[in-house]
Amino acid sequence: MSVLHESNLTSLKFLHRGKVRDLYEVDADHLLIVQTDRLSAFDVILPTPIPGKGEVLTAVSNFWFKKLAHVIPNHLSGIDPESVVKTEAEKAQVRGRAFVTKKLKPLPIEAIVRGYLVGSGWKDYKKTGAVCGIQLPAGLQEAQKLPQPLFTPSTKAAVGEHDENISFEEARKLLGAEMAEQVKNATLALYTQAADYALTKGIIIADTKFEFGTDAAGKLYLIDEALTPDSSRFWPADQYKVGSNPPSFDKQFVRDWLESSGWNKQPPAPQVPADVLQKTADKYREAQRLLTGA
């Protein structure tokens, strides 16, 4: 399994290195997004990559982009990533782990949707009886399915900083009322259809996040990645029970190790042991196999 911590493509203009993705300009209308094997946890980039993670994210995202294209258009251009770089060494870096996308303007929020009461939502509920300001019925338990999925947007932090939950009213101020409604509706529709499908494959999608962008005419597109083990909490349906947080097919395994390590969640992150990296890689691959059949 190949490992790519950072890409180095000299035949294209380098634009930006994010937490897990590297961005290049193909031409005035297109970008190349390379999914590396870097892993970000608690908004900090870990020093040790997860083998093959970028390939899993690319395959799973491509699967969902195609499956959910009837809900909202996405940023994929249909151009083969290997066709936009020059050397064999560069083709090897993008093979199976890159998208050529339309150049769109990203919206300044992350669109988070929660279907189950877990993680920061559970902590919030125990303190306030609400999740991100949305009041919920009393007496709910950890990991319980919510009466209906919640749209809980957040800010998009720079590398090394933390995203912050915001209210829908704040999202309306950032995006404008009409665009905020479009994003909320698209987020809930994408999640509902994906969650229904995943359940038929033995996976519960407890929560996920989407990112959106607009073209010059203001049309909304799904961008970035979609419904991957990086951006979602995947639970094995056969191990789910209300009242406890099930084992998951995602980076929660690494998060749990980091929580138990005594790390203060500030850079630099600790070196992750090889067995934890391998177990995480295996979980990502298993999620891909169950969801996509490949």
From TrEMBL:
<keyword id="KW-0547">Nucleotide-binding</keyword>
<dbReference type="InterPro" id="IPR018236">
    <property type="entry name" value="SAICAR_synthetase_CS"/>
</dbReference>
<dbReference type="GO" id="GO:0005524">
    <property type="term" value="F:ATP binding"/>
</dbReference>
<keyword id="KW-0658">Purine biosynthesis</keyword>
<comment type="similarity">
    <text>Belongs to the SAICAR synthetase family.</text>
</comment>
<keyword id="KW-0067">ATP-binding</keyword>
<dbReference type="InterPro" id="IPR001636">
    <property type="entry name" value="SAICAR_synth"/>
</dbReference>
<comment type="pathway">
    <text>Purine metabolism; IMP biosynthesis via de novo pathway; 5-amino-1-(5-phospho-D-ribosyl)imidazole-4-carboxamide from 5-amino-1-(5-phospho-D-ribosyl)imidazole-4-carboxylate: step 1/2.</text>
</comment>
<dbReference type="InterPro" id="IPR028923">
    <property type="entry name" value="SAICAR_synt/ADE2_N"/>
</dbReference>
<dbReference type="GO" id="GO:0006189">
    <property type="term" value="P:'de novo' IMP biosynthetic process"/>
</dbReference>
<protein>
    <recommendedName>
        <fullName>Phosphoribosylaminoimidazole-succinocarboxamide synthase</fullName>
        <ecNumber>6.3.2.6</ecNumber>
    </recommendedName>
</protein>
<dbReference type="Pfam" id="PF01259">
    <property type="entry name" value="SAICAR_synt"/>
</dbReference>
<feature type="domain" description="SAICAR synthetase/ADE2 N-terminal">
    <location>
        <begin position="15"/>
        <end position="268"/>
    </location>
</feature>
<dbReference type="GO" id="GO:0005737">
    <property type="term" value="C:cytoplasm"/>
</dbReference>
<dbReference type="GO" id="GO:0004639">
    <property type="term" value="F:phosphoribosylaminoimidazolesuccinocarboxamide synthase activity"/>
</dbReference>
<keyword id="KW-0436">Ligase</keyword>
